[in-house]
């Protein structure tokens, strides 16, 4: 959708939103230089009221909300999205009408059962910078040693492979079961951490498709540090980068740390740029209503981002020159 079609109220939203994106220190996309990966739970991402004006009924999400969502998503190279509903009209409108033909979409099937909430998991990616590798699959836990079936995830985690420049990576996204109390989430978090540390991590070490595994999504973890849910998440070696350890991913009277981006630090061949953060849009858009009311139009979660480096020229030059690429200035060996 063309910016010229946006009503003034929407333009004002976007202007303030761009300031928040800039405040988040999210880098610009640089051709052949960097890779921006994100995750965002977009609350109840299903139907859309197809007008700029407010819908007196349901759904509350309208074109104004979609314009705000698109403004955030287009800053990423690839972003995992949770809470996509059985009705895919919203995410398809986002891809086709607001982002355009340069953007691709990969969707999982609907998670059945009462705990699945009829949700899908999705990836939206900028085709000018990222391409799918061909790998895609849902995570199904194997039976016990006695060949007995085990309890599966309420919402089946989804793994997809991508390529950017000459770098390959796999993104595993999930939306952990919420339950009535935090303890209800523990078993799923433990199961996913164990599965990624054994099945997927071991396959990657043997040269399988799932190299450079990054785990991201909504884990419904209330806090980090000594929180038992966070401890279960990191118990098998998954590491959340320091830049995200104190980042709150929801807003409200008691902000939470539900959303995560993590990887097995020793196994990741991608060059982490040591930059990550959150885009806090609360208060920048829909200023005439409460933040809780805004959540039904956009989301109650905030998107997380991480930056990786795909330009390895310095590393390769250093190898040719016979110096350590980790030096402060490895190219200083070359005289002017």
Your description of this structure?
With 336 residues, this protein is α+β, with helices and mostly antiparallel strands. It has one domain (3-333): Endonuclease/exonuclease/phosphatase (Deoxyribonuclease I, Chain A, 4-Layer Sandwich), CATH 3.60.10.10. 24% of the residues lie in helices and 25% in strands. The chain contains 7 helices and 12 strands. The protein has helices at 8-23, 63-73, 89-99, 186-205, 228-234, 291-295, 313-321, and strands at 34-45, 78-85, 103-107, 119-126, 131-138, 158-164, 167-175, 213-218, 238-239, 259-264, 271-278, 304-309. The chain has a 6-stranded mixed β-sheet, with helices on one face. The chain has a 6-stranded mixed β-sheet with strand order 5-6-7-8-10-9, covered by helices on one side. Helix 4 packs parallel to helix 5. 39% of the residues are buried. The model has no long low-confidence stretch (mean pLDDT 93).
Name the strands of the widest sheet in spatial order: 3-4-2-1-12-11
Please indicate the percent range of residues in DSSP E strands (runs of 2 or more).
25-35%
Q: How many β-strand stretches?
A: 12
For the biggest sheet, the summary is: 6 strands, mixed
**Overall structural domain count:** 1
Specify the structural class. Answer: alpha+beta
Q: How does the overall form come out from the CA principal axes? A: globular
Could you state the CATH homologous superfamily? Endonuclease/exonuclease/phosphatase
- Give the uncertain stretches in residue-range form: none
Helical content (DSSP H or I, runs of 4+): 10-25%
Number of helices: 7
Question: At the third CATH level, what is the topology name?
Answer: Deoxyribonuclease I, Chain A
Taken in chain order, the helices and strands follow as: HEHEHEEEEEHEHEEEHEH
CATH top-level class: Alpha Beta
Query: Mind telling me which CATH architecture this is?
Result: 4-Layer Sandwich
Q: What is the distance, rounded to the nearest whole angstrom, between the alpha carbons of the first and last residues?
A: 50 Å
Mean pLDDT: 93
Rounded radius of gyration (Å): 20 Å
């Amino acid at each position: 959708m063309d910016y010229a079609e946006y009503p003034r109220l929407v333009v004002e939203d976007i202007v303030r939103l761009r300031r928040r994106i800039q405040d988040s220190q999210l880098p610009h996309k640089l051709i052949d230089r960097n890779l921006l990966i994100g995750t965002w739970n977009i609350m109840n991402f299903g139907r859309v009221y197809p007008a700029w004006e407010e819908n007196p009924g349901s759904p509350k999400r309208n074109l104004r909300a979609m314009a705000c969502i698109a403004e955030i998503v287009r800053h990423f190279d690839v972003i995992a999205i949770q809470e996509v509903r059985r009705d895919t009209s919203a995410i398809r409108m986002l891809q086709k009408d607001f982002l355009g033909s340069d953007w691709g979409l990969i969707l999982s099937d609907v998670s059945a059962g009462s705990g699945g909430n009829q949700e899908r998991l999705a990836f939206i990616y900028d085709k000018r910078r990222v391409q799918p590798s061909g790998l895609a699959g849902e995570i199904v836990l194997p039976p016990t040693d006695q060949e007995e079936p085990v309890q599966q995830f309420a919402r089946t985690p989804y793994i997809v492979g991508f390529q950017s420049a000459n770098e390959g990576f796999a993104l595993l996204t999930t939306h952990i079961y919420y339950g009535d109390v935090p303890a209800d989430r523990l078993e799923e978090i433990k199961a996913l951490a164990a599965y990624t540390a054994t099945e997927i991590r071991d396959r990657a070490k043997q040269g399988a498709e799932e190299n450079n595994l990054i785990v991201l999504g909504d884990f419904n973890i209330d806090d980090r540090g000594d929180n038992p849910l966070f401890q279960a998440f990191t118990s098998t070696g998954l590491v959340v980068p320091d830049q995200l350890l104190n980042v709150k991913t929801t807003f409200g009277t008691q902000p939470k740390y539900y959303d995560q981006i993590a990887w097995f630090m020793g196994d990741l061949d991608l060059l982490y740029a040591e930059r990550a953060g959150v885009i806090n849009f609360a208060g920048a858009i829909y200023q005439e209503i409460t933040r809780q009311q805004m959540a039904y139009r956009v989301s109650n979660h905030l998107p997380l981002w991480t930056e990786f480096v795909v330009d390895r020229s310095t590393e390769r030059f250093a190898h040719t020159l016979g110096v350590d690429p980790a030096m402060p200035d490895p190219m200083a060996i070359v005289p002017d």
